[in-house]
Amino acid sequence: MSSAVTSAAPTKTLDLGPARALSCRECGHQIPLAAEFACPECFGPLEVAYDFAGVTRERIEAGPKSIWRYASLLPVPTNVTEHPNTEPGLTRLVRAEKLGKALGIKRLWLKDDTGNPTHSFKDRVVAVALAAARELGFTVLACPSTGNLANAVAAAAARAGWRSVVLIPKSLEQAKIQMTAVYGGTLIAVDGNYDDVNRLATELAAEEEDWAFVNVNVRPYYAEGSKTLGYEVAEQLGWRLPGQVVIPVASGSQLTKVDKAFGELGKLGLVEPTPYRVFGAQATGCSPVATAFAEGTDVVRPVRPDTIARSLAIGNPADGPYVLDTVRRTNGAVADVSDAEVVDAIQLLARTEGIFAETAGGVTVACARKLVESGQLDPDADTVLLITGDGLKTLDAVAGHVGPTATVSTSTAEVRRALSG
Amino acid sequence: MSSAVTSAAPTKTLDLGPARALSCRECGHQIPLAAEFACPECFGPLEVAYDFAGVTRERIEAGPKSIWRYASLLPVPTNVTEHPNTEPGLTRLVRAEKLGKALGIKRLWLKDDTGNPTHSFKDRVVAVALAAARELGFTVLACPSTGNLANAVAAAAARAGWRSVVLIPKSLEQAKIQMTAVYGGTLIAVDGNYDDVNRLATELAAEEEDWAFVNVNVRPYYAEGSKTLGYEVAEQLGWRLPGQVVIPVASGSQLTKVDKAFGELGKLGLVEPTPYRVFGAQATGCSPVATAFAEGTDVVRPVRPDTIARSLAIGNPADGPYVLDTVRRTNGAVADVSDAEVVDAIQLLARTEGIFAETAGGVTVACARKLVESGQLDPDADTVLLITGDGLKTLDAVAGHVGPTATVSTSTAEVRRALSG
């Protein structure tokens, strides 16, 4: 028994629902549930292992209209809905006939996560992290971030009545700073780039024992929140798995967790365990996983990001190797697209389906197009694209590309002239 | 029989669900369902009259997770879900204990309409307008707007595959212009103020027979979409009416329609018809209805708006007199608050409940506070505040008021110093 097991031993009986242990993804070593993220044996990443019981479609459908309907599949306390949290999830799954036609995909759906409380999928992972962190004894919610995560952490902490500490590079856009600061937590601007901020967060996580850095020391719990995207897609399709799903890749965690969710649903008999293919989407300016996929290697070489898709700009993605495992195992692929293609795809999505996505959504749509053209995505299979964030947060991506059709004086004749011109 | 009845007679049998006729709010005269908005007898405003049948809680609960679960209570075709639309609604109703404590209200809930597709309640009214307009034979969706409505119309038309024509004052903020333009419809910037744009829209509505101006020639249908806010509040409270509701007042339509919804639910036996009180909220810089309420008159005198709450800045509110009727009948009131109070309230809401509202939400929260302090709002009654739009669209309201707590170098010691400072 390693010393980590002893030090992590809970002083009370933890209620983290069906979660049973933390298990190393590399060596399989297991430790009791605790605020740990690295295997004491091999330093591999830890993830949550479960004993599921009594999970049925009927109980899920009778549950809250949020991710908490899946509480019996998440590492959260049984009484999770009794504490204030942000209740994200159960966002729209939209049948997208016009976009499907434009991309050459016959049956296409969009999972529109812009409807979450702070308008990105980060509300899902933060809500799960907050619920687990409360049970693990933390009292402060923290993160390093450049945008969506900062918004989600500050909002969830405010709602819960917790203190938040959010670390950002001081050069961040004013809009993102303001939307984080309005929630009233502690917002620390750091004179450095995101890598500096991230390193600082890791140091602080080791020093401040009351602070749950959602994406550092409680990352195993946090990451499980992305499973809810997979559960919702399956439930909203009428309790079945799609044939194909295209997912943006930043750290890669989301892609692996949607795959985990599909696998769990099949094993639990909640859906037929039909085959599905998982595809990853990256911006060419930060495409280490797509590069490794194309080269047929298992090694993801870090890159220095240079893309407008800043929410995906992680040059050294922690879950990159697991993304490669998943897409290869399911006969998928990882594609990448240029910033110009991203801007085009944001507009295509808005014009065909009325959904205004951030740059990550543009990456996903543009990669889907490319994967159809290359023959890797099957145009006849039921296909779902994950739209994980909101265009209002990355307005600069479309500025200069869209604007009024015409400017006229107050005359109906001028309006008609503008319309026919 | 007036000539309007003849000219409006449909050439086919219209399916607008339970809608039976258009009825004049002033004289009670009725005409067949058509694209009319003014009474042919007295020029009073027309609204939809219904014959409801077979509406039960069970059927509603088994319906779509959007406003279309209430299709049997709306003027939309029976097959409304078969055509692409934006599926707004069923947004969160959040129990707000911390904000309640701050305001002195024991049991408080927030209806958070920032979760709608374009992040305001306008998606509700536009979705209903689009569905009715399709049945009425229109092919173009249009509006004059300064913001939220422009976003909602352009997005819904894109999703439906319709052309949109949106008229805006050319001085509108770039963010609002871009978020409308990205959906790809026709966006006409007019060299004039909103009153000029509105007059131009009314002229065009009379000339262009294929254009459904959602808030002009199909306004009776459009306005009914706000009823869904009332239905959802009641369903989400467990099929009961709140004791009090506070609603922002622009044209005043939303307030009267929530009242209409509560009345319908009671008459249909879907809830106990318990007494409720309706309160209106305005910004002092545009408070013609609050002024009339305070003066005890029925006459709403137009004003020239001067407030940061631009989405409420209608100086001559069409439904002002009906707002006065409703609040007086239900023993409510109309309050108004300064722009400084609005900015404070936006921050209070964000800091207590993690919800970032636009200025209209700040008006509602600040008015609730004022109404408690004046003794008009009962601190012991179940109270609901409608949060109808998103803070990301009015970032300028909080700019200069919020920002980083501290700026530090990359040292944990400096972070700790900043935290203790």
Automatic annotation (TrEMBL), chains A, B:
SUPFAM superfamilies: Tryptophan synthase beta subunit-like PLP-dependent enzymes. InterPro entries: Ser/Thr_Dehydratase, Thr_synthase-like, TrpB-like_PALP, TrpB-like_PALP_sf. Its cofactor is pyridoxal 5'-phosphate. It holds the Pfam family PALP. Keywords: Lyase, Pyridoxal phosphate. Residues 89-389 form the Tryptophan synthase beta chain-like PALP domain. The gene is thrC_1. It comes from Pseudonocardia eucalypti. It is an enzyme of class 4 (lyase). Its EC number is 4.2.3.1. Belongs to the threonine synthase family. It comes from the Bacteria. CDD domains: Thr-synth_1. This is Threonine synthase.
